[in-house]
Design brief:
The protein is α+β, with helices and mostly antiparallel strands and 131 residues long. 31% of the residues lie in helices and 37% in strands.
Length: 131
């Protein structure tokens, strides 16, 4: 099942880059939670799917372009760790990169939780892996 979990995460991120939020969360449980409690900035908190969708929509409006990059897909059974480098361009052409890692929890083909970590190793530890 874990290879299928990696594909779910891959499809969700691809949909986010197309700004297709319906497709991005098609395989998410209606009561999935998105944990941004470790975020730096205004969006700290734990969100429902609908709340997170609104956060994403507002975030995307703030930038001229947003590219959600994934540096790797690390299979950890019911978890998938996706270290990322996001690339953002502001309205004045200023480019910014943001790095971190997402920990996806997927059970029976359904995304039940996505948690943001600032460091790859923190996400790996939370998934029960070490490098």
């Amino acid at each position: 099942m874990s290879e299928e979990n990696v594909e779910l995460a891959r499809a969700a991120i691809a949909a986010l880059n197309r700004k297709d939020f319906d497709a991005a969360f098609r395989d998410a449980s209606p009561d999935a939670e998105i944990d941004l409690s470790r975020a730096v900035g205004l969006d700290q908190g734990v969100y429902s799917l609908d709340q997170f969708r609104r956060v994403l929509e507002e975030f995307n409006k703030s930038w001229e372009s947003v590219r959600y990059g994934t540096d790797d897909y690390i299979d950890a059974g019911e978890h998938v760790v996706t270290p990322f480098t996001n690339r953002l361009r502001g309205r004045d052409g200023i480019e910014v990169q943001a790095q971190g890692a997402w920990l996806w929890t997927i059970r029976d083909g359904v995304i039940v939780r996505i948690c943001l970590y600032q460091e790859r190793q923190e996400a790996l530890d939370a998934a029960g892996l070490s490098e």
